[in-house]
Amino acid sequence: MSSAQDRAGHDRWRSLNWRRVRIVARSDMRQLLEDKGFWMPMVLLGAIFFLFIPIVLLLSITSIGNVQVVSQMSQTLKVLPKAAQAQIEGQSDQGRTAYALAVFLLAPVAIVVPLTISTAIGASTIVGERERGTGEFLAHSPAHEREIYLGKLIASLLPGYLTTLVGFGIYSIVVNVFVGPEVGGWFFPTRNWWVLMLWVVPPFLALTLSVVLRLSARVKSTAAAQQAAGLVTLPMIGIAYSQSTGALFGADAAGLYLGVIAWVVAIIGLVRGMRAVSRSRLLGVADGV
Amino acid sequence: MVVLDGVTRRFGEVNALSGLDLVVPANRITVLLGPNGAGKTTAIRMITGALDPHSGSVRTFGLDPSRHGEEVRLRCGVVSAKPALYDRLDGHANLAYAAELYGLGRGPEVDERIRSAAARFGIEHALDQRVGGFSTGMKTRLALARSILHQPDLLLFDEPTSGLDPESSHAVLEMIREMTDNGRTVVMCTHLLLEAEGLADTVVVMEDGRDLVAGTPVELTRQFWPGTVVLVAAENPQAMAGAAEIEGVIHVEPDSDQSRLRLHLDGEHRTAEIVRALVERGVRLVRVEPIEPSLEDLYFAVRTKKAIADDGGRQLTPNNSEGGPVTDRQRQVAALTGWPGSETPR
């Protein structure tokens, strides 16, 4: 390692200024808010997954009545794990089907929405600074590379996660309004859903973003970043979907354990991701950029 | 204020800096002159620590920016070639972001400072408008306002008039001049010689990542043109044919106008003697004008000298195929300096 790299290393690991992290994050989020072209589709995506699709599906099931279709769907619930089957409430086929749909089968929305939104933001966040020339401003600013990285990570994570939380609130109301009467009152969110939303989703989101931000720092253009992020995000969505569904299907502590593993992997990913942001990358003069 | 000693920096196979030595005196305007790719922007990035050198040393305020980057950058204000503003934010939000990053915080005092900085560059009326709708001139003014918000000791301007109309350029250069009046040090990169003229306290001519010469314009002019150059015009220019034989005339250079000659004298005191000698030879003089070499002359002289050195000291002639194309300007300056290659075809 050269002496210049040694010195850079010394500077890299000095204490973190969280106020600057907050400033970078706030500025990035403010720019997103100013861009109607960005947040409108984001809101629409959340509305489709948390409002329209659940309403259509749950309304169909609860209003179809005791027809053969619902009966057949009810039978398919037997393929669910025993632990999941034991959780299903409702006396009628209609009620049990609606309950299972609301609690188990719509779990992916909790993953797809934040990952899609946050990935879209994160993919362009660093390469975008470079393309717009604003990377030069950040490179000459007193902010440390780690502060810039964490600020951008938060600015990418929060919109997706907040949209998901708001959507989750709306989804809870929809589920309780349409399925509640079938199972004897308001029941949603269940305990596993709380664990999923507050403990499992955030680390998956952070892990995915740690990869996406590294890509954003390395690629030459926003378009390339979006393409690469798509490739990375798809398997991440698959893993997160299967694991989150498993957390809902599994025994009581399954979600908690899954969350612990996800957090450990996410923290490793984040620490490694920090190294991807350098001033030379912000300036677009790093080798390979 | 700033000392770069033998600094090198590569980007892949390209040597952006190849042993740059640079000394920036305090409270002065230092202009880095050079063609595109000379390493001016990289030099500025080294000064703030935005980039680390591969070898050599950088000291800004006596500190190593690689090690004390935050301390150094807090005391620097930078305007890059692109204004580097956030188009989606309004002018005020752009400045407020910088104010916060540089530790000024938020609140009425900072708002007042933002208004004051914007007013100084005549952009306060547009603070509530989105920067995306700004003209190039407005963006440059806003970037300049941003650079002084935190009252830095050292201002680094990378081609600050790039893309501006002449009126705006002039206004920006006036503002830069005012900066040093307030005790600040300015480093400005440009390849526009006219804008550096009259502004530079110190000139550093760069090429291929190296400094070719450095000094005040007066020092460099004396260094390159120790004698005096006088432009003489006559009604009967053919009568000036023997001017080279007059005592005190070192060199005779034809001017682009056939009725004029440039006489290189061994001292300013010779002017009157030469005029008398020419008149005695029957020359009907219509104009005698001492020529002060401009920064442009200096720049081309320096670069021509390097071209000659690179050419192994051979003659710079139009037929020199090995040395690359020789421009009329190079020949002209070579003639002005009396270096090899000064023979201008008649």
Count of helical stretches of chain A: 14
Structural class of chain B: alpha/beta
CATH superfamily of the largest domain in chain B, by name, is P-loop containing nucleotide triphosphate hydrolases
Report mean pLDDT of chain B, rounded to a whole number.
Answer: 85
Shape of chain B: elongated
Number of discrete domains of chain A: 1
Structural class given helices, strands, pairing of chain A? mainly alpha
Question: What share of the residues of chain B does DSSP label as strand, in percent?
Answer: 15-25%
Element pattern of chain B in H and E: EEEHEHEHHHEHEHEEHEEEHEHH
Largest sheet of chain A: none
- Shape category of chain A: elongated
> Largest beta sheet of chain B: what is the strand line-up?
5-6-7-3-8-9
Précis, in short:
Chain A has 289 residues and is mostly helical. Chain A is 82% helix and 0% strand.
Q: Would you write up a description of this structure?
A:
The complex is a heterodimer of chains A (about 290) and B (about 350). Chain A is an all-alpha fold and about 290 residues long. Chain A has one domain (about 15-285). Chain A has helices spanning about 5-10, 20-35, 35-65, 70-75, 80-85, 95-105, 110-130, 135-140, 145-180, 180-185, 190-220, 220-250, 255-275, 280-285. In chain A, α9 (about 145-180) packs antiparallel against α11 (about 190-220), α11 (about 190-220) packs antiparallel against α12 (about 220-250) and α12 (about 220-250) packs antiparallel against α13 (about 255-275). The longest helix of chain A has about 35 residues, at about 145-180. Chain B is elongated, with a radius of gyration of 24 Å. The interface between A and B is large, with 33 and 39 residues.
